[in-house]
TrEMBL record:
PANTHER family per record: METHYLMALONYL-COA EPIMERASE (PTHR43048), METHYLMALONYL-COA EPIMERASE, MITOCHONDRIAL (PTHR43048:SF3)
Ranges for domain VOC: 5-134
EC number: 5.1.99.1
Record gene name: mce
UniProt-listed GO biological process terms: L-methylmalonyl-CoA metabolic process
Tagged with keyword Zinc-finger: no
Enzyme class, UniProt record, top EC level: isomerase
Keywords: Isomerase, Metal-binding
Family: Belongs to the methylmalonyl-CoA epimerase family.
The protein's name in its UniProt record: Methylmalonyl-CoA epimerase
GO molecular function: metal ion binding; methylmalonyl-CoA epimerase activity
Lineage top rank: taxon: Bacteria
Length: 139
């Protein structure tokens, strides 16, 4: 596996509105994007730019949201996943499977509009890991 660029740190929250106030007023984030719903992934998303990466705030959307369990255990929310870029999402998926890691589902379109998949935290040292195909032109 050739580690690519850190694209974002996923932070689960019960309230994007409250978290935006924290990242703006406490952390001094200068660029907070408009929140948007991602119903296919069961989350509402808001990107907060940092000087060298991005915070991806995620709030549950719908009864089947995959982050309800996390928030039940962590009511304040917190660091949920980390996302790295790869040039070839299918080759990366095959590599993780060959390494015996549990890849969760097929590659699907994520919040940045490119294909993503997740690797189970229990196979990744406790860190839910998202792999994302590098957006066009940023190889
Ligand atoms: C895709 C749009 C956007 C993007 O960037 O493009 C996003 O990133 S959206 C992010 C939200 N979507 C996902 O997280 C999808 C992948 N996640 C899952 O399929 C589940 O969350 C899963 C399978 C990782 C955990 O599901 P759940 O919490 O319902 O299962 P368990 O309670 O049985 O958990 C099993 C075990 O794992 C521990 N766990 C759960 N979540 C995390 C986490 N985020 N980081 C670390 N560990 C986690 C949980 O505590 C359990 O451990 P145990 O010791 O057995 O209690
Ligand atoms: Co993410």
């Amino acid at each position: 596996m050739k580690l690519g660029r850190l694209n974002h740190v996923g932070v689960a929250t019960p309230s994007i509105e409250a978290s935006v106030a924290h990242w703006r007023d406490v952390m001094g984030a200068t660029k907070i994007h408009e929140p948007f719903d991602l119903p296919a992934q069961g989350v509402k998303v808001c990107f907060v730019d940092t000087p060298n990466a991005q915070i991806e705030l995620i709030e549950p959307l719908g009864a089947d949201s995959p982050i309800h369990g996390f928030l039940a255990k962590n009511p304040l929310g917190g660091q949920h996943h980390i996302c790295f870029e790869v040039p070839d999402i299918h080759a990366a998926r095959d590599e993780f499977i060959a390494l015996g890691k549990r890849v969760l589902g097929e590659p699907r379109i994520g919040a940045h509009g490119t294909l993503i998949f997740f690797v189970h935290p229990k196979d990744m040292g406790g860190m839910l890991t998202e792999i994302m195909e590098t957006p066009n032109g940023n190889h």
